[in-house]
C-alpha cells in the first residue's frame, strides 16, 4: 500500500500531499456531516435533552421528597421526645400519687389498728373488772361463811343473825383491804 501511495504521488506531481484528501472527498464528507448533524440536532438532541430533563426532575423530586421525609422525621422525633418527656412526667406523678396513697393506707391501717387495740383493751379491762367484782363477791360470801363457821366453832354456838354476821365480815374485809393498800403505798 505504501508503494501504491508513493506511485500515485509521483504521478500527480510534486503538489500532492498524501495527508490531505481530495476535494471531492472533503465535499462529500462535509455533506454527510451536515446531514448527520441536522438529524442529530433535530432528533437525538431533543430526546437526550428530554431524557436529561426528566432525570433532573426525578432527582430534584427525590431530593425534595428526601427533604420532606427529613423534616417529617425531625418533627416525629420532636413529637416522640415531647411524648417521652410527658410520659416520664406522668409516670413521676403516678409514682408520687401511689406513694401518697400508700402513706394514707398505712396511716389508715395504723389508725384502725390503734382503735381496734384500744377497743380490745377497753373490752378486756371491762371484762377483767367484771370478773374481779364477781370474784370479790364470791370471795366475800365464802370468807364470811368460813369466818362465821370458825367463829361459831371457837365460841361453841352458831351465829344465825345474818345482818350482824354480814357486818362483821364486811368490816373484816375492809380492814384487810386497808392494810393491803398501806403496804402497796409503802
From TrEMBL:
Chief subcellular location equals membrane
> Which ranges does the record mark as transmembrane?
26-45
Domain of life of the source:
Bacteria
Which CDD domains has this protein been placed in? Answer: ATP-synt_Fo_b (cd06503)
What keywords sit in the KW lines?
ATP synthesis, Cell membrane, CF(0), Coiled coil, Hydrogen ion transport, Ion transport, Membrane, Transmembrane, Transmembrane helix, Transport
> What is its membrane topology?
Single-pass membrane protein
Q: InterPro entries in the record, alphabetically?
A: ATP_synth_B-like_membr_sf (IPR028987), ATP_synth_b/b'su_bac/chlpt (IPR002146), ATP_synth_F0_bsu_bac (IPR005864), ATP_synthase_B_chain (IPR050059)
* Coiled-coil segments on the chain, per record: 59-97
Subcellular location(s) of the protein: Cell membrane
Instruction: Tell me the protein family, please.
Output: Belongs to the ATPase B chain family.
Assembly and partners? F-type ATPases have 2 components, F(1) - the catalytic core - and F(0) - the membrane proton channel. F(1) has five subunits: alpha(3), beta(3), gamma(1), delta(1), epsilon(1). F(0) has three main subunits: a(1), b(2) and c(10-14). The alpha and beta chains form an alternating ring which encloses part of the gamma chain. F(1) is attached to F(0) by a central stalk formed by the gamma and epsilon chains, while a peripheral stalk is formed by the delta and b chains.
Q: What is this protein called?
A: ATP synthase subunit b
What is the protein's species of origin?
Answer: Microbacterium insulae
Organism phylogeny? Bacteria, Bacillati, Actinomycetota, Actinomycetes, Micrococcales
Q: Which gene encodes it?
A: atpF
Amino acid at each position: 500500500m505504501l508503494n501504491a501511495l508513493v506511485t500515485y504521488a509521483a504521478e500527480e506531481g510534486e503538489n500532492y500531499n498524501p495527508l490531505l484528501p481530495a476535494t471531492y472527498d472533503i465535499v462529500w464528507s462535509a455533506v454527510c456531516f451536515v446531514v448527520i448533524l441536522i438529524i442529530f440536532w433535530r432528533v437525538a438532541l431533543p430526546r437526550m435533552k428530554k431524557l436529561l430533563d426528566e432525570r433532573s426532575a426525578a432527582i430534584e423530586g427525590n431530593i425534595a421528597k428526601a427533604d420532606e421525609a427529613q423534616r417529617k422525621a425531625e418533627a416525629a422525633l420532636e413529637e416522640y421526645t415531647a411524648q417521652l418527656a410527658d410520659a416520664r412526667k406522668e409516670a413521676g406523678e403516678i409514682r408520687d400519687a401511689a406513694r401518697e396513697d400508700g402513706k394514707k393506707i398505712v396511716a389508715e391501717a395504723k389508725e384502725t389498728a390503734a382503735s381496734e387495740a384500744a377497743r380490745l383493751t377497753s373490752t378486756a379491762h371491762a371484762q377483767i373488772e367484771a370478773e374481779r367484782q364477781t370474784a370479790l363477791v364470791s370471795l366475800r360470801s365464802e370468807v364470811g361463811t368460813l369466818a362465821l363457821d370458825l367463829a361459831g366453832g371457837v365460841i361453841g354456838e352458831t351465829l344465825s343473825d345474818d345482818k350482824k354476821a354480814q357486818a362483821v365480815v364486811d368490816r373484816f374485809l375492809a380492814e384487810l383491804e386497808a392494810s393491803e393498800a398501806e403496804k402497796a403505798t409503802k
